Amino acid sequence: MLDKIKGYVNKNFSKDLTVRFTGEGILINNAADYMASGQATSLGSSLLTIFAVMAILFMSFKAGIISMIPNIIPIILNFGIMGWFGVPLNTGTCMIAAIALGIAVDDTTHFMARYYKELKNTNDQQLEMALVGGGTRSANVIALEDTELLRIDDKSLDRVRRRFPRISAKLFLNISRVLSNRLKTQNYANF
Question: DSSP string of the chain?
Fold first, then answer.
């Protein structure tokens, strides 16, 4: 629409006349353009800073690159879902992207710090990467009281998920609640 108006002005008005477009629609359009370009610049500089901090913190270029993966995924998902559903970029959605990035950075920092701590203790990278890659890990456990053990393999979980999606969602939610409560109880007991 603005291009049509500019074409009309250029065609019908004198070149000596200065014409400026204003109004609420123009201001909102300019603000949206500025917000979009500012968001892209902000995310780019944030990711570069995160990479530099992680690489310096863990004294490894490779660690900096690896730590970028969980930081980029929430941004791609956030803006991908917004684009898919036609959600416009505004102040609120920009804040959501910043919050998602902040949570990802926090989780990445904790994970990488724990990984390097365990790596120093065991000095076995293959063993530690088993945690990430779903490989087999071993541990020695001593049960000091009655203990229950439940093992569900990937194939069984996938079969339940495909045949009974609602039941599997409830199962996963309840398993995560039980594990979360047990971890909280254990953590409080240690302090």
Answer: -HHHHHHHHHHHS-TTS-----SHHHHHHHHHHHHHHHHHHHHHHHHHHHHHHHHHHTT-HHHHHHHHHHHHHHHHHHHHHHHHHTPPP-HHHHHHHHHHHHHHHHHHHHHHHHHHHHHHHH--HHHHHHHHHT---------SS--------HHHHHHHHHH-HHHHHHHHHHHHHHHHHHHHHHHHHH-
Could you tell me if 50 and 71 are in contact, meaning their C-beta atoms sit under 8 angstroms apart?
yes
pLDDT in tens, 27-74: 777 777 777 777 778 888 888 888 888 888 778 788 788 888 888 888
Place of tokens 């901090």: 53
Look-up of token digits 């500019």: 6
Query: Who contacts 114 (Cβ-Cβ below 8 Å, separation ≥6)?
Result: none
Pull the structure tokens for residue 12.
Answer: 């019908």
Task: Report whether 133 contacts 75 (CB < 8 A).
Answer: no
How many Å apart are CA 146 and CA 51, to the nearest integer?
A: 46
* pTM tops 0.85, yes or no: no
Exposure b/e, 103-120, CB count within 10 A at least 16 = b: ebbeebbeebeebbeeee
The identity of residue 136, as a single letter, is: T
Q: Domain ranges for the chain, please list them.
A: 24-139, 149-191
